[in-house]
């Protein structure tokens, strides 16, 4: 394990494995040490901070069977390389769906309604004059148009929440999601339309070559000046410098971000100085029960692969083609 995570992970693993736990709280700061530690291991349980590439796989050696990530996104793992070597890559699948959708919706409300500014205003004792007809005026959420990029599990869970706010839901996705369309009335639209029509645009796609900097100057300029951009997926889906320009130039009204291109954002990141943003420290899945469920799934995935059984969530299904796994 590259670092300690919530129970029951260690409880489950230590029944069957000899477990080495990395000390790092942050990114594998000392990669050299990690490369030494990983030698001859059959399994790695990592987090999204750990870049697991060919160097790590080489260092582990031929015995490495499974890389189990304590995350649902696996963009930190070289999947192609793992698959080529017959290494299973597992993830936490859908156990974090509802918690992440809750947080996305929290940003959809907090950003236009200026919740954080209001809180700061009160605790900084700036609220002196009593009720004020013009104090902290924001924008409505109810009845507005919500654009969802990536209508998978989390996107669909956000759409379900949006129905309660009577929102018109547009989505952009590689494939139609008929079930979610039926449940929520979401309508598939092309990329330009979603940028132009959305009052709130929320990102729920995975990060890959196609979605890297998907949101950039060109399409930010297409958005309504009253629109809000919400990101609880991965920071690199947005070109952050272009977003800063868009917020400064008022091409859009605001942004609610739980993820950044660099985490934590550099001290010089201009987003930190802006009023029209709500910024969170990548806490989409951060509830006690979800993080514990993720720990359970990550540990079980790892053991299932070692027992030649199908893991709960496999990120590289093609690796199983030649294996007899049941
Ligand atoms: C994930 O799992 O991919 C989230 O970003 C963190 O829980």
Tell me about this structure.
This protein is of the alpha/beta class and 326 residues long. The protein folds into 2 domains: 9-94 and 287-322, 3-Layer(aba) Sandwich (Rossmann fold); 97-279, Rossmann fold (3-Layer(aba) Sandwich). It has 12 helices and 10 strands. The strands form 2 sheets. A 7-stranded parallel beta sheet has the order 6-5-4-7-8-9-10, sandwiched between helices. The protein is globular. The mean pLDDT is 96. Residues 48, 71-73, 92, 96, 284-285 line the site of (2R)-2,3-dihydroxypropanoic acid (DGY).
- Rg is 21 Å
CATH class of the largest domain: Alpha Beta
User: What is the helix tally?
Assistant: 12
Name the beta content range: 5-15%
Counting helices, strands and paired strands, the structural category is alpha/beta
User: Taking all residues together, what is the mean pLDDT?
Assistant: 96
Unreliable stretches: none
Number of domains: 2
**CATH architectural category of the largest domain:** 3-Layer(aba) Sandwich
| Estimated helix fraction | 25-40%
Give the terminus-to-terminus CA distance: 25 Å
Largest sheet data: 7 strands, parallel
Please name the CATH topology of the largest domain: Rossmann fold
CATH evolutionary superfamily of the largest domain:
NAD(P)-binding Rossmann-like Domain
Strand arrangement, major sheet: 6-5-4-7-8-9-10
Ligand roster: (2R)-2,3-dihydroxypropanoic acid
Please provide the ordered H/E string of secondary-structure elements: HHEHEHEHHEHEHEHEHEHEEH
